[in-house]
Structures are given as C-alpha cells and as structure tokens.
Amino acid sequence: MNETLPASPPAWTPTTQQVEAARITQFMKWLGDTRGLAFDDYDALWRWSVENVDAFWCALWDWAQIPSREPRGAALADAGMPGARWFPGVELNYVERAFQLASDARPAIVSRSESGPMAGRTRELSWAELRRQVAACAATLRRMGVTRGDRVAAFLPNTPETVVAFLATASVGAIWSVCSPDMGPLAVLDRFRQIEPKVLFAVDGYRYGGKPHDRRELIHHLLRELPSVAHLVFVPQLDTDANVQEYPHATAWRDAIAGNVPLQIENVPFDHPLWIVYSSGTTGMPKAIVHSHGGIVVEHVKLTALHLDLSPGDRFHWYASTNWIMWNCQLGGLLAGATLCLYDGNPTYPDAQALWRFVGETGVTFFGAGAAYFQGCLKSGVEPRAAADLSRLRAVGSTGSPLPPEAYAWILEHVGPVWIDAISGGTDFAGCFLAGVPTLPVYLGEMQCRCLGARVEAFDEAGHARIDEVGELVCTAPMPSMPLYFWRDEANRRYRESYFDMFPGIWRHGDWLCITPRGGAIIYGRSDATINRHGIRMGTSELYRAVESVPEVLDSLVVDLEYLGRASSMPLFVVLRPGVELTDALAQRIRARVREALSARHVPDEIHQVEAVPRTLSGKKMEVPIKRLLLGQPLEKVANPDTMVNPESLAWFAAFARARGGVQ
C-alpha cells in the first residue's frame, strides 16, 4: 500500500499571535529555561520526547505542577510492554488535579439536556458547588462502606450528576465504571457482572430526540442480576417525583449530595486503578480495560493542555455519550482548568442545527465530535454560522473515524477559519497517538502530528518503519495510560493477544497509517477490514471518500469477501438521500466515481441500497462484523445489538446473508 500526497498548500496556517499564545510554545520555552533544551520545530520536540522517555514525562510533570504526596522520582522504572512501571513511590489522586486549577471566576460545568427538571435549558455549576457535591457524594459512598479498590458502577447519561459521581468515586480510591442508559440489559450486564460493583448509580430514564425512554424496570433487572450491589443511588431524570423506595437499599440523588462536608481525597499509588472501560468489540465478552490514576492524569494533562491547547478560561465541549472514551477524555478538560460544556441528547433535535446553537449560546471555544457528525452536517446542508454566534469558537476537533478532506473544507468554509484538530487514539489507552498542535499548519485530510511521548510508526509486514507508505500503526515505546491489565485476565492472556500478537513487545493498534514526509498522519481505516483486490491492499476510508462524494449517497459500507473455493466478492452498501432510489444510472455513477478516484480493480462487484449502516455506540462502521456475517458466521456471534446505535439495521444484512447462503 503506497500513498504519495499531492503537493498542496495548507488549508489553515496559524498566525504569529496564535503560535506565541499556544501552550505548546510555553512548554518549549519552559524546557529552554529549565532544561537548557532548544528545538527548531515540533518534529524535533517529538523526537526528543520519544527518544528520552523518562526526561519527557518528568518534564511534563514538573511543567504542569502535578500534585502528589511525595516528590516524583524517575518516570519509567520498567519499559517492558506490557507491564511498564511508571513513577514508583508516587501517590496522587485524579480528583486533586481536577480541582487544582479551580476558580469561581468561571463555572466548572455548563450543561444542557433533553431530560431532567431543566430540560432544554442551560445549567451552570460553579467550582465551589461542584466541590461541595463531590464531597457530599463521597461521604455518602463512605457511609455505604465503599473503600479503596471497591467498584462503583453507573448507568448514567452525559450530565453533571455523572461527573459528580465519578469524582466522588475516585476521591475515595474506588474504581469507576459507567454505561449509558441507552444500552440494553445484556450489554450492561456483560460489563458489570465482570467487575462486581458494590454501589450502582442509575437514572430512571432519559429523552432522546424528544422521545422518553423509561429505564425503571431495567434498574430492577440489573439489581436482580448483580448480587454484589449493596446500595443504589437513584437519579431521577424523567420523573423528578419518582419513588426511590420501590428499590431496596436505595438513596435518592438529592440526599446523596446533601450537606456541607470537607472534601477528603484519598491519595493512592500512581498505578492504582481509576476506572474500567470496555472495548467496543462486537463479539465475545467485552474486554474490561483498567487504567491507572497516574497514567490518566499525565496523559490527559498532556492531551488537553498541549494537543488540544486548553487552559483556564476555555470552554470545552466534545459531543459524546458515557459509553465512548471521549466522555472520559472530555473530563480531562478539568485537569487543564477548562469549563466543561456537556450536551445530553440528540444533536439534531429539534433540528439539524441544535448542537451548533448550544456551542454558540454557551460560548464554547473548543468543539469536538465524531467525524460522522461533521460529514452529516455537510450532507444535510447545515449552516452553523447562520444558526449561532460562533465568534468565540477557535478550534474544532474530530475523531471516531477518519475525517475526509471535504469535511475539513466544509468546516473551514461554513464554521469559520478555525484550527481543525483531528485526533486518533482509542479506548484501549484512553488517549491519542495522533493529534494536532495550534503551531502547525493544517492540510486537508491529514492529522498534524504524532503526539508527544507516543513513539508511533507505520510498520510494513517485516516490522520496518516506513514514511510515505501505508502500514500497521504501532507504538514502539510504552505510554503511562496503557492498560494496567484487563479485569480477570489471567496472566494477561487477552491483553497480550489484543495488542502484542503481531510484533512481540510492540503495541499494534489495528489501524492502517501513513506518516507523511512533513510529519503529519493519515488513517486509512482498520487493518482487519482491509480491501485486497488483485494483490493491492487499501484501507476502506479511501473508498468511502469516493463513494460518499456522490451527492445522493449519505453513508456507505464495503466488505471484501474472500471465500474458500469461490471467487472473491466486494459488495457495496449505500444509504441514499430520502426519496432517492438506487437506479442503474446511479449505480453506474458510483462505479465511475470509484474507478476515477481509485482504480478499476476497486470498483465494487455489486451495489445494494440499505436503510442504515450498522454502527457501534461510538459511531464506528461495523465492517468486520458484517464481513463475518456474510462469510457465514451466525448473527448472534458477530454482533451484540446492545452495543449498537442502530441494532435494527442488522435485520437487512442477516436476511441478505441468508439469501446468499451465508448465515449458518
């Protein structure tokens, strides 16, 4: 797989003032003043950070003034992967850093939700009130017998109550885990049964797109199936007068956060578990991934301060649900002193510009969302600047899937001349491998840089690093936020199989990556969903870009099917604009566009119209599960509907597979 970028000017270039004001510029000046280090450009800084791992993470710690009980020593005690040991002897707590930069000159949280007593209206929570609620909730947890290492689970949406519950849990040294209330019972139980929580926070329901979803019966079901739960904290959203007494050992949210008590923060070792998150796998039990207090603090300080350029005074919004790791990363804005702006509900309700109005009305300065959201705005003809005053917005972030060049161009034309910070990372390590900095130019379709401290390469099949060629995304040095372990993973078997099977001792992430000669990066899709046509391999994102440039096509999914004893086949499935039917003429235009943009060998063998492309709760196209389904694996073994945003979309593909003799 080779890719040569055409010569093109940058689509956005920072001004001198923007470069001087950037936090990464401040960091580089600090390195010069305190370490005697000078760097000609970002690439030189990145190379120093990955070739001097201990020095970089110690410098970040000192620059950010991360609080801990004992002064830090060396950063890296053991560089093995998996199993690297960081900052031995240090004790700290995520919550202490979260409040370190607090100031009541600005709110801690600004939020809007379709649910709750203030549905549709903006709420503000001061830093002082956030601290009071966290302290009271932590005291409630202690009265319930929660101590260091206990698990606290939550069935909650993206609201301030969830932030309070998380910070309270972390402050006592307990381990947090959350599922969004739009998840089905099997998916929730597959996660929470593994970790045996002592306390469950749960919401009675939620509204999405104006429709109520009552979850009270589901709470009863969860309590029956989770015998480890000794206490329930009931958070009413649909019915503020709901009877908490119908549940055993239940405490109402208003009582859980009542009173004024000092915030007691339990210092824990650097590698003490902070939270458990889950892989977005579509088959088998979800991997319960454990991250550490210290690892998340230093990684998220680096991400938010240096790669998102957040500082006190910023208002940070990343549209996410609590199922997505971007919810966790959004919380990292607190570590930079920024105000969190939370939105709970359908971003296109009551109309396609609803989320943009929230961004404008709350004065968001950094707005992030999944790439699919921006592509949807482009296809729908949304005009953000006509809907809202975006004068304070200076940066737009994107992740979840590759952001195509035309989406970059749409943002710059219809949102404004903002810095576009496209990032790529994963739930696996709750961070980013690739991101941006506001001191570099932006090129259409290209992430600006490899992240500091992330020794990322594109490997060929022989394990050699390549530039300007597409290869496997690997990380050849440890990062502090890599998992401590998977919960109940004996001898780290699943952990090793997940990331270290192809290149022992080197993290293989599962994406196709090209490092450009100028130091940028392009993701070409998942490496396990590769198109291999006549010996030429290609990431699926290239084909999607071509297909979805056809005006009638809203979304698409392609799978390359290689059968034993039969000719291979590559069907393409397209979602078309309302009222549009797939005619022979339209199919020919789609084929012609693929032939023109890619090559004749990548023209799909057949094209089918579908109502929707199956997607995970984090918005990723389910290429591999559909491929497995069409190759003959049973539906129940390839996809879990409870982990999907649109499980009803599976029925069409299952019927299609049966008609082809694919489903066993």
From TrEMBL:
It holds the Pfam family AMP-binding_C. This is Acetyl-coenzyme A synthetase. Residues 106-478 form the AMP-dependent synthetase/ligase domain. It comes from the Bacteria. It comes from Paraburkholderia hiiakae. PANTHER family: ACETOACETYL-COA SYNTHETASE. Its EC number is 6.2.1.1. Gene3D superfamilies: 3.30.300.30, N-terminal domain of ligase-like. Keywords: ATP-binding, Ligase, Nucleotide-binding. One of its GO terms (molecular function) is acetate-CoA ligase activity. It is an enzyme of class 6 (ligase).
